[in-house]
Design goal:
This protein is of the alpha+beta class. The chain is built from four helices and eleven strands. The radius of gyration is 24 Å and the shape is extended.
Length: 236
C-alpha cells in the first residue's frame, strides 16, 4: 500500500482498508508500522482499521504505545498558535512512570500569553480499575459553598456557585445538585458549567448554573455539595 507511506494520505488509506475489511488483511503490517508513526495522535483510527482487517487488539495497539512512550521527555512549555488557526499541536505527553501512584490526577490548564487561565480540566487516571478503590480510604475533608443571586435571562434563570476545599487533602469527585428549597427535589433539567469537581487543598472553583424558570416554580433554589471524601453541605 504505497499510500500508507504518504503522510498526506495515510489516514485516508486506513479508512479505505477498514471499509474493505478482512480482504485487506495483507496490508495489516504496513498499516500498523507506517500510518501510526505518521500520525501518533490518530492511533485510535489506525487501531480500529487494523482490527477491522483482522489484526488483534494487542498487536494493533503495540505501535501507538511505542510512539507515545518513546516520544521523549514531557514538555510543559507554552504552545503558540496564530489567531483563528485550526491546527492540532502536540504540547506534551504525560507518560506512565514508576513514580506515579496507581491512581492520580492530571491537571490541564489552557492559559493566554499573559498567563490568565482560559480553561482547565482535572482528569483522574489509574493503572487498573481496582486502583479506584483507594477513594474509599481517602482522607476526609470539609468543603464549603456560596451561591449568588438568581438572574433572569428570558425563560431561563441562572446563578453562580463557588465551592471551596477547606481540607488538607484532595476533595474527590465533588458533585453539585441544584434543589428546590420548598420540596427538596432536584431542579431538572439544570445545566452545570462543571458538575463533578476535584479540588486541591485550599482550592476553590466557581461554576455557572442555569435552568428553565418553570422547573423551579418557587423561585427558591438551594445547592447541595457532596464529595466522595467530603460530607454533604447545603447552602441557600
Amino acid at each position: 500500500m504505497p499510500l500508507l507511506h504518504d503522510t498526506r494520505c495515510s489516514l485516508a488509506a486506513a479508512d479505505v482498508l477498514a471499509a474493505t475489511g478482512p480482504g485487506a488483511g495483507s496490508a495489516q503490517g504496513a498499516l500498523r508500522d507506517r500510518a501510526v508513526l505518521d500520525h501518533p495522535n490518530r492511533h485510535a483510527t489506525v487501531e480500529w482499521a487494523a482490527r477491522r482487517i483482522g489484526g488483534d487488539r494487542t498487536s494493533a495497539l503495540r505501535r501507538p504505545g511505542e510512539a507515545v512512550l518513546t516520544a521523549g521527555r514531557p514538555s510543559f512549555g507554552p504552545v503558540h498558535l496564530s489567531a483563528g488557526s485550526a491546527a492540532v499541536t502536540v504540547a506534551f505527553t504525560a507518560g506512565w512512570t514508576d513514580s506515579l501512584p496507581d491512581l492520580h490526577l492530571l491537571r490541564l490548564v489552557l492559559a493566554d500569553a499573559e498567563g490568565r487561565e482560559l480553561s482547565g480540566s482535572t482528569c483522574r487516571r489509574y493503572r487498573t480499575p481496582a486502583a479506584m478503590t483507594a477513594l474509599s480510604t481517602a482522607s476526609r475533608v470539609r468543603t464549603s459553598a456560596t451561591i449568588g443571586r438568581v438572574i433572569a435571562d428570558g425563560p431561563r434563570r441562572a446563578l453562580t456557585a463557588t465551592v471551596r476545599n477547606r481540607g488538607s487533602a484532595v476533595a474527590a469527585m465533588v458533585r453539585l445538585s441544584l434543589l428546590d428549597q420548598c420540596t427538596g427535589e432536584r431542579v431538572l433539567p439544570t445545566l452545570y458549567g462543571d458538575k463533578h469537581l476535584w479540588l486541591l487543598p485550599g482550592e476553590s472553583r466557581t461554576v455557572a448554573l442555569s435552568w428553565p424558570a418553570h422547573a423551579l416554580p418557587s423561585g427558591r433554589p438551594e445547592l447541595r455539595v457532596k464529595g466522595c471524601s467530603s460530607p454533604a453541605v447545603t447552602v441557600r
